[in-house]
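quick one
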Amino acid sequence: MGGFFMAQNKHADRFSSTGFIMSAVGSAVGLGNMWKFPYVTGQYGGAAFFLLFMVCLVLVGLPILLAELAVGRGGRGNASSSLTKLSGSKSWGALGFLSVAGSFFIMSFYGIVAGWTLHYAVLSFTGELFSTQDYAGLFGRFMNSWLPIGWQLVVMLVTALVLIRGVSEGIERFNKVLIPSLVVLLLLLAVQALSLEGAGEGISFFLKPDFSKLTAESALVALGQAFFSMSLGMGTMVTYGAYVQKSQSLGKATIAVGVGNVLYALLAGLIIFPTIFVFSIEPTQGAGLVFIALPAAFSAMPLGAVFGGLFFVLLAFAAITSAVSVLEVPVAYASETFGWSRPVAVMLVGLLCFLAGVPSALSLGEDPWLSFGGRALFDWVDFVCSNVVLPISGLVITIFAGYVWKGVADEARLSQAWFRIWLFMLRFVAPVLVLLVLLYYAGVIRI
Ligand code: PFF
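structure w/ 4-fluoro-L-phenylalanine:
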């Protein structure tokens, strides 16, 4: 009885070393790479933007990722308590709590988009997706129905089922199956997209940089994208870090996750850009690119139902491995803070998070009652989480690891030279760049 409701002190549940890499890659690789990345890359100049994204990843993304993992493993707690334990001050824990709240709300809208991908996978396999020419209308009707909420519930249930089983039996096992499947799907779809006649134009848009397109604004957007895409500032990597064994090299894991994420974004671009160029779709379209423009392209290609279906399955897999990591943050927090057992924490937090997402899902319908200031509630939650909470929490971590926490070197265990470079990035480069993003989105600086 007590075991179900209250946490029991059993043997610590940890990742194996490959299990951790796969789970961290699973968190990083997600809708950010396949849904956000193509349209921001399209809007901000293709290859030049991709290059900026990589620079941001190296200068800011990797140093903060390592800092988050070190804080998690050093504190062996959740995204808030790890900071309290390492600093001895509750104020740091309170700052860490911001990321716990942020991940809760990220999950609330992320689960919605993940649900769309499942719906589109089903529509594609049944052929229903291709019985129309009006993809904007199809998407609009879907948005105006209750179906997105049904699918959001499915995503939440799958995520909860994985989390209930714990770290090694749940999160790790799930990622160990899904990540290799993701790689196979990605390669298959990339080969298919690259073999389309006229794919070259899309490839050169994506890979041949036009530096005249580089602006200060695109640099800030690239930084925001690097952050979201590496799952930073939301406590995910702190939480996962707490489950990493002491013997694992955090430096190597950081590089592996960074490389995995870039390769994935690269392959996703090689699927999406040739496809949209061959079918004369504007790459600058907004978020509808994946759900409106791409189905039209799939409908016009041979075996489109199969490739379209596989594409949306790929998206769904990528989304759910990320969702698992996002929901784990408030779950770990609730179970440690309130002493709840894992099943209880997962069920309660999952239910609350699902309910919190319902108004966002409804806000995308035609009724304007959940829109204000020119944005639907859904977009507000995304905007505030991605552009405000993420950078603030990122800043908290850089300052904490760079200036406050004395044990940082012992936990990171880098060589002298690498440690110096890392500390320099954490102290001087990352905070300045992240602050710029924050001020830009707060409207304090205009470019
Ligand atoms: N990195 C994920 C993606 O690119 O889709 C999304 C994400 C996961 C963002 C976890 C934030 C987070 F904490």
